[in-house]
Amino acid sequence: MPDPRDPFFQHSWLDFEPPEEDRANLGALQTILPGQFKHAGVAPAGPAPTPPPHAVEDATPFRPRQRPPMALLCVLHDGDTGGEWIPLRMDRHVIARNEGDIRIPHDAQISGRQHAEIVRARLETGGYRWFIADLGSTNGTFVRASKINLAVGSEVLFGQTRYRFDAGQPAAPAPPPVLENFMTVRPGSSPLLRLPSVVESAPPSLVEITATGDGERIALIRDEYWLGCDPTHCAIVPRDDPFVSPRHARIFKDENGRWRVENNRSRNGVWLRLTQRLPVEKMCQFLLGEQRFILKVIA
Q1: Is there a domain that residue 236 lies in?
Q2: In the predicted model, what is the mean pLDDT of residues 206-219?
Q3: Alpha carbon separation from 223 to 30, 151, 204, 205 (Å, rounded)
Q4: Which of 23, 29, 105, 187 is buried most, with the most CB atoms less than 10 Å from its CB?
Q5: Could you tell me which CDD domains the record lists for this protein (predicted)?
């Protein structure tokens, strides 16, 4: 996990949720000893020799020290935890539907020319850092997270249902009373006063984002809510969403008055739309259109 004390990691609003181990497991290279053959129809010349005893680890695994480090991008298969791994060796890779370095031609929700980029940048303190950034796409770039601190305008995806967080409005102070009519006030008489109406406070809310605009607005008048497909345990139930778990996520106000979202180990996770470039220390999952990816940094 990224170290929040790292001056280059200023995203306290987000905690990464790593994928399952098998998503990052690239497999181990098989050692072929003399006398062993992998090709069918070729018989070994004799019995395989006994492997040497396990060597004592006395050195750090080799890593390049002069050239920049590489990363790996996995384009996940639909409904699967595996996918196609692509080595990233250039400083910048653009993902889009029709153009760019990595193309997903069959997803109409991905922007045609440029949707998102993966960038390797050299730091002033030395070393390199990988970043993910949206390139002004219509449908956004979402990153999977276990915990999110909501800010005004934050867009969060549960299953295939998307919400925007609105902070609400505080109560406006009442302006001074105003005379209904200008008149001369005689001693002992009372002028008619018109008291301006006070603007009442509006609570924060979650607004469903649909293909045609804003949908249902859910006022957050309590300090805690559960979101999921089980109405017996959840106050917020997305409609017709088979990808939402029974108790998918917890939405609550913490002791500092900030609204937060916590994933409840749901199968399909919680996703936050990026509004600034995101540094990646080791690994993260992100979503463009309906295509999921894993970015793995080779340290």
Answers
A1: yes
A2: 95
A3: 54, 16, 11, 12
A4: 23
A5: FHA
